[in-house]
Amino acid sequence: xxxxxxxxxxxxxxxxxxxxxxxxxxxxxxxxxxxxxxxxxxxxxxxxxxxxxxxxxxxxxxxxxxxxxxxxxxxxxxxxxxxxxxxxxxxxxxxxxxxxxxxxxxxxxxxxxxxxxxxxxxxxxxxxxxxxxxxxxxxxxxxxxxxxxxxxxxxxxxxxxxxxxxxxxxxxxxxxxxxxxxxxxxxxxxxxxxxxxxxxxxxxxxxxxxxxxxxxxxxxxxxxxxxxxxxxxxxxxxxxxxxxxxxxxxxxxxxxxxxxxxxxxxxxxxxxxxxxxxxxxxxxxxxxxxxxxxxxxxxxxxxxxxxxxxxxxxxxxxxxxxxxxxxxxxxxxxxxxxxxxxxxxxxxxxxxxxxxxxxxxxxxxxxxxxxxxxxxxxxxxxxxxxxxxxxxxxxxxxxxxxxxxxxxxxxxxxxxxxxxxxxxxxxxxxxxxxxxxxxxxxxxxxxxxxxxxxxxxxxxxxxxxxxxxxxxxxxxxxxxxxxxxxxxxxxxxxxxxxxxxxxxxxxxxxxxxxxxxxxxxxxxxxxxxxxxxxxxxxxxxxxxxxxxxxxxxxxxxxxxxxxxxxxxxxxxxxxxxxxxxxxxxxxxxxxxxxxxxxxxxxxxxxxxxxxxxxxxxxxxxxxxxxxxxxxxxxxxxxxxxxxxxxxxxxxxxxxxxxxxxxxxxxxxxxxxxxxxxxxxxxxxxxxxxxxxxxxxxxxxxxxxxxxxxxxxxxxxxxxxxxxxxxxxxxxxxxxxxxxxxxxxxxxxxxxxxxxxxxxxxxxxxxxxxxxxxxxxxxxxxx
Length: 782
Description:
- The protein is α+β, with helices and mostly antiparallel strands.
- It is built from 18 helices and 31 strands.
- The protein has a 26-stranded mixed sheet that branches.
- Helix 9 packs antiparallel against helix 16 and helix 13 crosses helix 14.
- It starts with a helix and ends in a 5-residue tail after the last helix.
């Protein structure tokens, strides 16, 4: 009994001693470990390390570090930190020369990667731990296992100092089974959020560290692509970018071989905006969707369910010097070329993405591609030319392209394009192409209902004569086989009519009325067939067809001059009876217009029940542009001559009117006063010089002066009371000028009745009869 009690006491003492020993070891080894790490950190790692406390259990292999901080090399900036780092080391496996961490976890780690050209802020660590000599493969190797790695709620920053770029991701969670010494692959799951913006990405995958093969599944939800904005600074002089991406992609491939990828799934880029500044886009779209069944460039497989683009927008502008794209990216893309040339020393995400897309797409036309549907919906494309004496603007909207079953195995691929043209016109194109040979196709197109007055900025600049009537149509059929063209192209100008010449110093004086007199046919049309033949790379037009038509017109015209003069007279009578044109700045009437007003007065006097409604149709944009130019030139004129506002005469006004807005001294004067390098157009420079309220008030005064001038012809007895002005319409008139639209109530005048009768009769005659339907379809008069 004694012996048993004594044995128990001895065992108890041993246990207590062991527990005490373990406790003492644990208690003292933790601060010793903390002290040793912080004392020898620079020697071992080359960096300062700090921590609040360390718990080390040498018996179980468990280690926990609270608030770990690792500093940048020779800096007081933190390179890496974590609220908690834990690890389990398998002590017993050391006996078998296996060093294994069965678990490593990092709680709320924060890391920073800083790059300056090729140098990274951890390059010193790579250099320090890279073996100086090759490993002796004849000796038995130690085995290392790092298993069950877990990162919770991390945040990682990337800073590129040269461009610069500053970006981060947050709420980073990573789980990995880790790496065993005898297994090449690592599996992982991950998720994170965009740091500065919105969106999430999650996924899973595996990578073979031996050959760098990978497998990946990634899902992105409205992930913001704002990081592209920062790389844009390296390519452009200015600019703004925004977009987000949805993605559900599965892929396998090899990291070393970009072409070695096999992917399927959905990619959608949303709310894409790119332009000079936020809210001022050069290009944008609502959504670009790629629905991929299989993408495998190496195996020449490009199989898509659909490729669709909704509401794309693009704006191209020409200035006196360069255009909007050259202003942004440098002349002929100089900024982009420089960035590409520096890619060996400076990483740019945009260039890398562009190159990767090239790699993925390079085998497309050599493959048996299949796309179920290709479509562009509601496109809106703008062209504006500010290099002329006045702005030219045209847009195509809504722009739609549709093609079903774009498949190289098919005999033909059918593509259809349809769009409106703003302010007037439309275009339809159908293309039937052999997908195995792009030099074999059939093309049909029809451009119609285009107002000739739309072209006035060019016509005025090069001839001084604006159109105030006329419609353009152009259609054709192309048949191309083996690159050889057989085509018919039909140009038709219906009722082209010029108004009086604008005498300006900056406009050429080409005798356009004389040219029209030669080329215009009896029906008051210009109707030419333009056959184009030859090779696609060197198409040829038979100019002699046009020459023979011209010669024919020269001999036919003298015989038909009386008929054509009668046509002009009748058309003018009809036009003037229904509308009264206003030239820009005009508020008084020409003798011809006064004659028309006298007829209108007589008509009202004869019929006491008759009345007239007048609707001012205002080309507001053009009117304000001319007022803006005039006021800017006037202010410049007063500032650079001895003339002041009080002594400013009508002769001075004419001088100002004729002054070119592109006059070098005037432009230099504007630039000195605007003092803004981001103003590229003469319109913007004038707007910076002239208060918009001045332009608005001048236009308001002009509109009032026109109404008073019109009413002044009807101030007798009860005539004026029968003139009713309706609400003004602000639009782009088909004839290119502001005008008064005249509506009659009561019996119309005999001369107008005769004009209607004459025009109907003329439209039934051979020269005009075949164009009757087209005249009915066009804007303006029949």
